[in-house]
Write a structure and sequence with these properties.
3 domains; 15 helices; TIM Barrel; homodimer; alpha/beta; Immunoglobulin-like; about 550 residues
């Protein structure tokens, strides 16, 4: 195996331990002229040897699990490990060596559930519980089982700056956020979920790296100016030196499945992954996950957030597709929200109430080759050959709640009857339903945009940017300060609510709906072909 | 039919005449607040009406073939027609209305030849003959028939600044260069070729617009800063407003086939066409050409220059491909040149003489998923399922000759025996052979880089750029001035040479080789599966 190939059976990048306790250290640093690993506490420096394709490596007995280390480039520049598994002091501190194999799993009998049976519950670890940790999340699993959901989807956990973040500012994709409890706590949570019959989806970000603590560019050519994305230069998936980057993310995907027993990945905004290679990086990840599944006998799914209405992503390889199992469809959400009274501004302007919603029930994509006034172009393609289980739908999620200036959930915007209608709209769809944490009992707290950057300039820039974004809405109040601790605290779920009215009734309603969906084949068999949809624009009604 | 759709039966953009002589005028100008057409000589101004998707149009009796006109945007800005068919005074002058249907064709019996039988001869109109016109080219057709070639490939003819240019600086894609003779002269040439049994390939540039006389940005969103290309911002094939741009190029492709009876397009550098739409623009062009072929019963091919070793471009639709009929493979050229003594610098550094050449005979792509040191990444994919007729090979072409500082053809660089070996290497290949004009008689003139921009600043920038590009080669002499008329004159073929030695012998050799290729099924049946290749690196031999 050369250095660019991936080993499905074990992680190779970073610091890894074999069964005899020897550490294998591998770093991709084509920009470096020398590389060593420094354990400050032991005053030990271990030189790495240069290998092919910009890799450096060494085998050593001198690094043990728990050791804190940095990489030293060119005999002076110290950085945490790009493939760090633990950052006890945050993104700017040292990395800590972790032996992922030391966790004792008890989920040997677990089998991933059929994708068709996924009933997804999206959680943000930091605000799901008062403590904001994986351990605290475990205490809510019985509640979720009782609710009837079958899979939790955890918003990104890669190490980000500070302790408060949605997770999309992660800068160390292999490292589990220390304030959430780190790698072992995530393993423990997944093990517990499996014991309770819950699948676990992890949200991962392969399209950009966060703004604070991003040292990748010092090591190698992780970015390219060939393409622009909303976050600046794109991650380099097809320019010179891309192989080191492609391997980095392939190994990352494999690690979650193999070492954390994650059942499915939700890959963020894959439309911002620009890759004109003969084999798209998503297809390459799928090929390797297929290989892993053959080796382990376990089943894993790849789900993508996709803003393109393009079946190439979810079609099988032999049709030229990338082989993704499923994708999110925001258009169902937009159509549903406009049907429920949302004003047609911004990205909602393309949607025409129940007509668009009926279209989405029937064709998944509302725009399937038709002209979008908002995008100012013909958009999308027909998805008639794709199964219902390939589409994830929702009436709210972290984005569409949090993108509002005040982060109001639907419960703050529409009536109780409308909330029930929206729940029903999602739960009778021939697609995979996703609930956003707390919607099942009409949580009254908002879910606002929050960060905790430690770089004062960046913090100020984010603050200003957010204010500017919503300057047109100044009559509706002021945008909350994303850096303020109270913005985060105010976004937490209030666990006393499910027990009191009117929240208790709403919770009961969701439970009943979910139970009905699970009971009737017409609902749980996601047979798109046999769904017929009628609607009446004047009466604002829709009939499935 | 809405304005964004293409009409395969007739051109819609620009000024077009119906059978009653009425002019239909259509302009895509989403940036304009008003549009009119001005015929200065008649002192007539004709207002266009605003239509959907940024189009403007009018039907009028007031414009006749031969009228010279400009479009006036926002009541003051005058520009030639982006879809102009004629620019009698060059890129900065007025457009002239042309009725493409007025040409009387005599090629009713012509049937395009099988792609497998294409034996291509690349010509640059300006330097192929002393006159540098289509009319003059006609006088050489008997010579080409006698040589045995079956298809001429004409380097780009779209109107460029001045009278001397390779053709890749064209700015009006529908307009045939006036100094070559314009649209009717091209129609006449194609008609004549068909009478003589020659197919005609036209080189078209859909990946960028030249630097002088490019007014497109005043009309609409032809460019996007989402992607970078070697020529700056990419042409907008997938960003907001892309539909007007996509239609512009689709109509252009259809026009050459329908109104000029062109048999095949050679689309320049399609790797620089950046398009993440669900239906790639090349596939969309293919779909419409398929439609045209059904309507007319004629056969047309789409050939692409492609620097990606990616079969997605040449695979059929049902495999997720774009359906292109064939592609150029520069790698065969590079391998052959290194085998013939070319030093391994720049893009040649990746090639290992006969080993690479043998690989290309066997697998078309030399790099098919292997690491390219020059590109610094894994490159390409296997093409084992693709037919031999899908690949065009050559021992020289305009690029690899003209990219040299002094533009030397192979005849100036290697021995006569090596020239013969190189000719043989191309003509026994299981691919489509392409000769560059003059190589068949070992033309001794170079083919140098020449332009004739009329903008002094641009001219100076090109001059300086060329000098800088070759500054490392100053010991080998000075780069010729691309603006100088003598650089152009010096690049013309010398038609006395084929009659005298040693050129006559070389010409005879090419004729014999071509005749042999046409005679033996083992050579003309491009059966890649049954080609077996052996080579001996030490002896520098290769055995097919």
């Amino acid at each position: 195996m050369n250095m660019i190939e991936t080993n499905t059976t074990a992680r190779t990048l970073g610091v890894n331990f074999n069964n005899e306790g020897t550490a294998s250290i591998v770093l991709w640093a084509p920009k470096a002229s020398s590389v060593s690993l420094l354990i400050a506490a032991k005053q030990r420096t271990i030189a790495l040897e240069k290998k092919e394709y910009g890799y450096w490596s060494v085998e050593t007995e001198e690094v043990k699990p728990g050791d804190e280390y940095v990489f030293v480039l060119d005999e002076g520049k110290e950085f945490p490990d790009p493939a760090s598994l633990s950052q006890p002091d945050g993104v700017h501190g040292s990395s800590r060596a972790v032996d992922l194999k030391s966790f004792t799993w008890t989920d040997g009998d677990w089998q991933n559930i059929d994708l068709e049976s996924y009933l997804i519950y999206e959680v943000h670890t930091g605000t799901f519980t008062g403590e904001g940790t994986f351990a605290a999340m475990e205490s809510k699993l019985d509640y979720l089982v009782d609710l009837g959901i079958t899979a939790i989807e955890i918003m990104p956990v890669a190490q980000f700056s500070g302790n408060r973040n949605w997770g999309y500012d992660g800068v160390l994709p292999f490292c589990v956020q220390n304030s959430y409890g780190g790698a072992e706590a995530l393993q423990h949570l997944v093990d517990k979920c499996h014991q309770k019959g819950l699948a676990v989806i992890l949200d991962v970000v392969f399209n950009h790296i966060g703004p604070e603590g991003n040292n990748l560019d010092n090591f190698g050519y992780y970015f390219t100016d060939k393409y622009h994305t909303p976050w600046g230069n794109a991650i380099n998936f097809d320019d010179a030196w891309c192989d080191g980057v492609r391997k980095f993310f392939r190994e990352n995907a494999l690690m979650w499945f193999r070492d954390f027993h994650i059942d499915a990945l939700r890959m963020d905004a894959v439309h911002a992954i620009k890759d004109f290679s003969p084999v798209h990086i998503l297809k390459e990840i799928k090929q390797e996950v297929d290989q892993l599944m053959r080796e382990t006998g376990r089943v894993h799914y790849l789900i993508v957030e996709l803003d393109l209405n393009d079946i190439r992503f979810i079609n099988p390889f032999d049709q030229g597709g990338y082989g993704m199992d499923a994708q999110w469809i925001d258009e169902f959400h937009h159509a549903l929200r406009v049907s429920s009274g949302q004003s047609k501004t911004g990205y909602y302007s393309d949607f025409d109430g129940v007509a668009s919603l009926a279209k989405s029930y029937e064709d998944a994509y509302v725009y399937d080759g038709t002209f979008s006034g908002h995008r100012k172009k013909m958009f999308g393609i027909k998805s008639s050959g794709n199964a219902g289980r390939q589409f994830v739908v929702f009436s709210q999620n972290h984005d569409h709640v949090g993108n509002r200036m005040l982060g109001e959930r639907s419960s703050q915007l529409v009536s109780v009857s409308m909330l029930k209608l929206m729940a029903g709209a999602v739960l009778v769809s021939p697609y995979l339903p996703l609930l956003f944490m707390g919607e099942e009992y009409a949580e009254s707290n908002p879910f606002q945009y929050f960060v905790s950057h430690t770089d004062p300039e960046l913090a100020e820039a984010v603050r200003k940017g957010r204010k500017k974004e919503f300057s047109a809405f100044h009559l509706e109040g002021e945008a909350p300060d994303p850096m303020a601790g109270e913005t985060f605290d105010h976004s937490k779920l209030q666990w006393d609510l499910p027990g009191i009215e009117p929240h208790r009734t709403m919770l009961g309603f969701y439970k009943t709906l979910i139970a009905i969906r699970k009971k009737y084949p017409a609902l749980y068999q996601l047979d798109r072909e046999n769904v017929s949809v009628g609607y009446d624009q004047s009466k604002q009604t829709i009939l499935l």
